[in-house]
# Entry
Amino acid sequence: MLIVENFKVGPLETNCYLIIDKKTQKAAIIDPGGISAELDKKIYSLGEENVNYILMTHGHFDHIRKATRYKKLTGAKLMIGVNEAEFTKNKKLNLCRIPMPPFEADVLLNDNDIISLGETKIKVMYTPGHTVGGVCFITEDFLFSGDTIMNGSIGRYDLETGDFNQMRESIKKILGLSKNYIIYPGHGDPTTLQEEKNLYLKNI
Ligand SMILES: [Zn+2]
# Structure
């Protein structure tokens, strides 16, 4: 059983998630684009050492800017898609206009990789288009979609390394999944796969 908690961070109100494997209390942070006092509190109550991973759906600054801060706090491993590795080091790619020291991820993720968080398995799914190395994280009933698909919309594909055709394929890939996942996007409210299917399938 997985617990999902949402914290709004940074000027773009990015959804940063803390996911906790209920039985073992092992946790991962998804997309720490800013600092949240509430998230910090939750981390302290869990025990910093229980946060094993910092997962990044993609490398835009509003999803990664405080990754190293949370790594320092917890000792968690930084993980990002292998094709996104440059984003953490390059402001032209991550679009950060405020201070953010370049950093390297500890683990570069491949399509279909499985990450074990306590007893929970998290699957990595490549979904390029918004950026070249963006991924979704899928676990139990949940799909963390970053800026690929959001409630009633899809992410931009006109930014550096963005690509409309890749985006189209990625959206198809997500909507083609058989389970009616709860989608937790990078911005805005959660949605479900079925709701998005009803909206988009006829248009792509
Ligand atoms: Zn983005």
The two ends are 34 Å apart (CA to CA). The domain at 2-203 is CATH 3.60.15.10 (Metallo-beta-lactamase; Chain A). The pocket of zinc ion is lined by residues 58, 60, 130, 147 (CB under 6 Å). The CA atoms of residues 57 and 135 lie 5 Å apart.
